[in-house]
Give the backbone structure.
Amino acid sequence: MPNPRFFLIACTGFRWTFTAGVIPVPAQTGFQRIYGSPMGDAGYSVRQTSDSGYIVAGYSRGEVYLIRTNASGDTLWTRTHGDTASEQGSSVHQTSDGGYVVAGSILSLGAINLDVYLVKTDVDGIITGVDVDEPTVLPGEFLLRQNYPNPFNPVTTVRYQVPEQTYVTLRVYDALGREVATLVNGVQEPGYKSVGFDAGRLSSGVYFYRLMAGDFTETRKLVLLR
């Protein structure tokens, strides 16, 4: 009986090595990852970065969503950018200074049609040195935005909107549901609001912040990394 022969078959994404009577085993040459939350997210553009990682642009909860990974697809950081809860990123590129530029669309408050939306960030996906004017049109609905930055250490900002005068509470809880901070507790006029959260006395971990205003309640997650 002739000796069994060895074969090497190469095709896109797989490499098989086998002998007679042995089932081929695919070699590990790629990865699959899922990013985002159960609330609905999308990725529209991906580019390889200068360190062989990846930058993904899309949207999350109506804001531009950036995901930065290493070469294996493991998340290094995520960022959201936007002001009206109607933005998305459709294309992303790394710039010569190591930062990122994202092009997409925005539905401005009071507008009917979409406009072009351009975002420039630093190497960590953060927008620095930009003063944003609050919209002059009052919000039409309650909304709690993702804190920024997130993850953070130890200070972050929470933004939300109130369409009518009402009693508002904004509290932070740990993973066991224990209240660790009260950021807002009182009657507020309609408008776009922001409040800082200093977690200097807290340990690293996952926390949750909950906005309650009239019949509206929403909770989001924030991550403290030291």
Q: What stands out?
A: The two ends are 66 Å apart (CA to CA). Confidence is low (pLDDT under 50) at residues 1-23, 130-135.
